[in-house]
Amino acid sequence: MTDATPSESTRPPGGTLRTGGPGTAPPGAPGGPAPAPVDAGAAPARTPDVTPPDSTVLRTGTFSWLLPRRSALAALLVVPLITVLVALAVMASSTGMSLSETVSGLLGTGDPGTVMIVRDFRLPRIFVGLLVGAGLGIAGCLTQTLAGNRLATPDLVGVNDGATAAVVAAAAGSTTGMVGDWWLGPIGAVVAAAIVVLCAGGAGTAGYRILVAGIGVSTFIGAVGDLIMSRENDNTAGGVFLWAIGSLNGRDWGVGTPLALVLLVLVPFALAVGHRLQLLRFDDDVAASLGVDLRRLRAGALVLAVALAGTAVGVGGPIAFVALAAPILAQRLAGPTRVPVIGSALTGAALIAAADALGRVAAPVELPVGVVTSVLGGPFLLWVLLRPDRDTGKA
Amino acid sequence: MSIAQGGRPRTAETRQRESPPTKARAVPWISTGLVVLLLGLVLLSLLIGTGSSSVGSAWDFLTGDTAARADAQIRLAVMDVRLPRTLAAVLVGTCLGAAGCLLQAATRNPLAETGLLGVNSGAAFAVVLGLTFFGADSPGEVLVWALTGGMAASAVVLLFAASGRTAGSPLRLVLAGSALSATFHGCTSYVLLGTQSTFDTYRYWTIGSLAGVEVSDLVPLLPLVAIGLLTALGCARPLSALALGDDGARSLGHHPGRIRLVVAGAVSLLAGCAVAVAGPIAFLGLLAPYAARALTGPRMTAQLVLSALIAANIMILADILARIVIRPWETPVSVLLAFVGGPLLVWIARSSRLSTAGAEA
């Protein structure tokens, strides 16, 4: 993830890798060692040791694994944070429920009403929120890394517009004007992304062309949705509007279970892809000489990002800002040389959980989670990003 | 923040990047062609529209036929309905084209569009506030609210981008813009959730239209647009220097941070006027500079002029189509911009010149 302009000093000096190339990689170390951070302020130590400075090699026999110390520590810090957030989210309500009542509801010892509220309404909703956040976070991390651009979120590839158009079309086509089944969104997202890839002439080309085609196609699809909406009555428009802000209201296990299964399948792939994507920091030739099949890697990362984001958006609506902010925060935690897949998932989950809980208590009426992420996400991101960073020396 | 992937040398594309001399020579011809096309479209825009006035009678009116001049209905259609729309389309297109081009150059991000500085979201929020709490109902009042909100929002973004240790860095500008946009957008949604009547009006404002624009609404905007455009032309050379990178620009005696802030101010003026007149149609501000770069290569002044001309052409074409596609109803102009512009953007991206268009930002 290069967040610098080509002109600034963060360009990795191609060809002057301190590592001796792939030949000297520790056996089994995937993809060869990562180089030291090349930014000002972190002068690499001149040692023959090829272990990256932010990692520890763990060996057992012929197997070895580079443990990224800083990322691991960051993850260890975020997990308890999420636990605390979930606990608070279970308590958070517009009706005012005390801690003891909440616990009794959770354990099933309280009165039936409390148990039902906590177990059947709140827990599944929190669970779905965490999964949606994780999906958005990972998808954002992959697209930002692919494009080398902080603003490259999955919605640029048409995911949000595709999902929204599908939901709009379903709502307009139905007699009741209600927003339909949860799987409409993901299907719309995937169809839109497929059109984008076709228009761009394949996903294996530079990530850049995909983005441009994505903007063109998603604008087009969004306009179709607008056109349908402008012919609709106000009730339908209002229902779709609520969905299009992003809301977790009424999400239960019926949505959560398929979502969990999808993530269970996709996240391991995303981890593998993220690991290889670290090599994109070099130019394509160096990456290729390190044994990366760039075309397949980019295509795979894009497919994963679309599938993850599409599912998340289909379930929770196009919740603003999480796919943009989570990877940036995770990058801050993990340091500049990593592609923080797990970190993005955790920060995304934490962001959504916190936003949804806040939305339930902040105002007299319940705020959709998308409103909270929009309103608070902006200042929060600014505060995080614009403090000077020790690693890059840049704000 | 740049899209050119972290400074990877791309050998095949660097070869293409050196704009051949033929390209540079073609610029005057292309501009002339675009101006002629624009005049043709202006004429078309005055002739075509809804209502009972035929194209023929409108033509008679324009050529000074006395019978047609005396017909009040034709006069109304041409002078009071179509002329303001036509002028507004040219104005909005010019503003968005120039603003998008400036912003993409200043942030070195070819995916930057004019909504990035918070202008659109600020305008939207102000419009919603005006509709909900201050009883704004005429198009003229909404225009004032939108202009004020857009300017105020981008002023906040600029203040933010101009402060701190890294004042004026592209990252600071873009992040401040997108973060504050998100905040305003959330506030807009919150207000809308509670008020059905505002929501209906806002729905139609947000998909953009030039219907109901009065010449008297446009006149006060002209000084702002003029300031923005003159600043833009004045910034062309320093912006070209920015393409060398901040260090390169400094060595030529420029101040990159200062240039970016001045340019961002000009962008806010232009984009604010465009939003006020036509609603938030930011896509044009991304598309036109893109097309201009594909035609001219890296020369900043040529890019600016062409970008403004292309955008004016597309805008007026979209507005003509908006009147006739589903007669007698209006089609939202943003929808037509997307239908015309989306495929165009994809086509440019597929053409072999993409590397030039993208990497030059």
From TrEMBL, chain A:
Cleaved signal peptide residues: none
GO terms of biological process kind: siderophore-iron import into cell
Record SUPFAM superfamilies: ABC transporter involved in vitamin B12 uptake, BtuC
InterPro entries with a match to the protein in the record: ABC_BtuC-like, ABC_transptr_permease_BtuC
Membrane-spanning residues: 72-92, 126-147, 182-203, 210-229, 253-273, 302-329, 365-386
Gene Ontology CC entries for this record: plasma membrane
Name used for this protein in its record: Iron ABC transporter permease
